[in-house]
Amino acid sequence: MANLVLDDICVRFGGLQALTDVSFSLSEGEVIGLIGPNGAGKTTVFNVITGVYTASSGKVSYDGKTITGLRPYQVLSMGVARTFQNIRLFQNMTALENCMVAQHARSKKGVIGAILRSPSQRREEARIQEKSQQALEFMGLGSMADEVASNLPYGHQRRLEIARALASEPHTILLDEPAAGLNPSESMELMKAIGRITDLGINVLMVEHDMKVVMGICNRIVVLDHGVMIAQGLPEEIQQNPDVIEAYLGQ
């Protein structure tokens, strides 16, 4: 069964048609690459899925429920987390605190409990800290839990964004250019990390320009050009598709 389904998604900003009839699905444990030239509409797809934008027409479904028009926090609570093209960490907070913010999305305690510091609230805080530390460990950042995010090297900040997404205990993660700015060895570590994520049964939708990463880990690839889907298929099919070659290289 497909966990995430986009059905004829269109997005218009005034007279600008950003997406036109975009349709694809993502199933459990699958990695799909969403690729295309700059301005193709890839991040717009992420913003529609996560409730930042509302589709002008079409429908987004998750686990059989329509999520079109939900707010970002509601989409997150359903199990869809994301990272961003431009790093959006809480720069003055530690790595652990960044992850704890995301883990609070799973908190069952209200404001009153937090103010009174009841025993159940303290247990909940301990659980949140433990889950957040586990997310850091998973991404190889366990020893940097107390480091302020702004002091971390760029590659580590990229991994911290993924750790923060994992801390929300998602079933689906949207990665927006996770390999941007990474060196070859860091890109290889990223590929291994994404493999471990899918081993947990988490599906991954990834926007990425590094074709070595895309072709190395994606089960299927969806290609956008000027907001229109021009191809989707296996990596080897996409590599040989003349429309894809033209979109990237020119006629």
TrEMBL record:
Molecular-function annotations in GO: ATP binding; ATP hydrolysis activity; L-isoleucine transmembrane transporter activity; L-phenylalanine transmembrane transporter activity; L-valine transmembrane transporter activity
GO cellular component terms listed in the entry, alphabetical order: plasma membrane
SMART domains (alphabetical): AAA
Pfam families: ABC_tran, BCA_ABC_TP_C
Sorted UniProt keywords: ATP-binding, Nucleotide-binding, Transport
UniProt domain ABC transporter: residue ranges: 4-251
Name of protein: ATP-binding cassette domain-containing protein
Source organism of the structure: Pseudodesulfovibrio cashew
Lineage, broadest ranks: Bacteria, Pseudomonadati, Thermodesulfobacteriota, Desulfovibrionia, Desulfovibrionales
